[in-house]
Fold this protein.
Amino acid sequence: MSHAVTPLPRRAAALTPLLPAVAVFALLALPLTPAGAGPADLVSGLMVVYCVIRLLRERRRPLSPTAAVVLGLPVLGLALAAVGASSQEVGLTGLGRYLQIFVLIPAAVLLLIRDRSDFRLLAWSFVGLALCQGAVGVHQYVTRTGASYRGEDIRAVGTFGPHDVMGMATVVSLGLVCAVGIALGPASVRQRATAVGCALALLAPLALSFSRGAWIATILTCAVQLALAGPRRTLKAALAVAAAAVVLVGGFGVGSALLQQRIDSITQVTDAPDQSVVDRYTLWASATDIWRHHPLTGVGLKGFPEHRDGHATLALSSASDIKGAGVTYERQPLLSPHNMYLLVLSEQGLIGLLGLAGSWLALLVCGLRRLLRVRARGPGLDCALVACGLLIWLLTDFAYGDIGGPSTVLTAMGLGLVAWWALAGDRQGDVVPRGGVPERVEEAVAR
């Protein structure tokens, strides 16, 4: 009898370090308030505190030198941009947000993940959250209770509402990328079949989000994942996706006309573009002009809205209309260029962009190098495909969007998974007890 019950407490204890991270995903599935820090943001902050307490209690060094350098690269540019902000309060607020998203949460996730099993649990958490938000989004489209799109309340936005119209698209896209990575890995047949089913199920809410940036980033990322996994799996997956698309759009007619219009609008930059495209390119031009006048350190954190109109043309509408999903008609000001690279360039200058982009590039190079290593001789290909896929998706989506809103914390969680794989996750064995310094399983057992 004792042999039957003893594993349960051990399994529960083994999951304890990951509970704060899993709680972040769970809270993102709940209805969110349009303004202020959401519960997921609060719990992510508590996760960082919990991680610090664990480090102090266990008296171990927080990060390996490589991990500390890679994750710490953005700090100098952020500090300089905070000093150059319009006020001390604005600078500190912006500095705290950037450090939370790009340094502290990724470092905490890196430290909390101990092995590939932990990594897979968080990857499945991405998928689970995506399915929850996707189900809400599809229901919004069917019942016409979503955000307003072309005069109809049909845009799938999940629980994020029209104030964070990209929230559900981001969640669904990242969940789909994780599902594809798991499906292409060396998992059991049942697990891979489940991952394929989840990926196919997420195609509908992704399409109904009407998010062009999310579509482009997801298609590109999945194509790269398939190429990295090998030609045979690429062909099988391409056939499955093609069949799903035929059934989804052709068989059920899921928004076929509206989807076609939205797809066509991607290329309509000079030939009768819609106002959202005009605003997007005008904001990009404004951010570029701001940077030309402040090339090294930018105008300071959160300084883009203040300098926007002085560098924009009259074509900019300065605000977008939002309506539906429980919100009456409002005008939402355009406070960012909707391009992460241009936002950093305008507010933090070349120093800030080199710090952030240098950190992301280092993670990408380390992640891809280790992916090629495990593909040749070792387990963990699914983790590699998930991590590299998450980073490629984020880097692509940053060309069409930036941080902001409750869904931003998911960006930080994704970067945490990327950091673990790139800096700690490819060695033999699954135990990584000291942040970023993997140890072999037999050494951990001996201890």
User: Anything to note?
Assistant: The longest strand covers residues 327-333. The chain has one domain: 19-27+37-270+334-446. Residues 19-27+37-270+334-446 form one domain.
